[in-house]
Design brief:
CATH architecture: 2-Layer Sandwich
CATH superfamily: RutC-like
Strand order of the largest sheet: 1-2-3-6-4-5
Distance between the termini: 54 Å
Mean pLDDT: 83
Shape: globular
Order of helices and strands: HEEEHEHEE
Radius of gyration: 23 Å
CATH topology: 60s Ribosomal Protein L30, Chain: A
Helix content: 25-40%
Number of helices: 3
Structural class: alpha+beta
Strand content: 15-25%
CATH class: Alpha Beta
Length: 163
């Protein structure tokens, strides 16, 4: 207990000896401005809502918003018919389109997160998912959730690394 009190006393003494000095290496008196280090990627024909970007590049990483199985090129986002299997296939094609707009491929994905409306669809989603990643798939998580956009059965968000 004595040792702990001594450590605390030394920490308090050290903190009291510290001072904050204004930075002079930034020039000017105004608060520093932070440059935007991101590029928005929005390919033609890929549906998106105005509340998010389809993908954002920062440095060598590209973060893809969740994609669902919407039909490309439709003015109002519309899901493909047929349930989780065709939705998963269209979702992966939509991801491929977004990656192509960033000059990347499915091989550049390092992490995917899959959201299912019903965990009972896990096997059917995996069957299609494996068609797109027959070897060396990205790291992945999958979980069931409710209330996916547009009543979708599957949604996939990804992170890609540029080479």
């Amino acid at each position: 207990m004595r040792a702990r009190a001594g450590v605390l006393a030394l920490a308090a003494l050290a903190a009291g000896a510290c001072t904050l000095e204004p930075r002079t290496d930034r020039g000017g008196d105004s608060a520093p401005t932070r440059e935007t280090h991101k590029e928005i990627i929005q390919p033609e024909g890929v549906a998106r809502l105005p509340v998010f970007s389809t993908a954002v590049r920062t440095g060598d990483l590209i973060f893809l918003s969740g994609q669902i199985g919407t039909v490309p090129g439709t003015e109002t986002p519309t899901l493909v018919d047929g349930g989780v299997t065709p939705e998963t296939r269209q979702t992966m094609e939509n991801i491929r389109t977004v990656l192509a707009a960033a000059d990347l491929t499915l091989d550049d994905l390092v992490k995917c997160t899959v959201f299912l409306a019903d965990i009972a669809d896990y096997a059917a989603m995996n069957q299609v998912y494996l068609e797109f990643f027959p070897a060396d798939p990205p790291a992945r998580s999958a979980m069931a959730g409710s209330g996916l956009a547009l009543g979708a059965r599957v949604e996939v968000e990804c992170i890609a690394a540029a080479r």
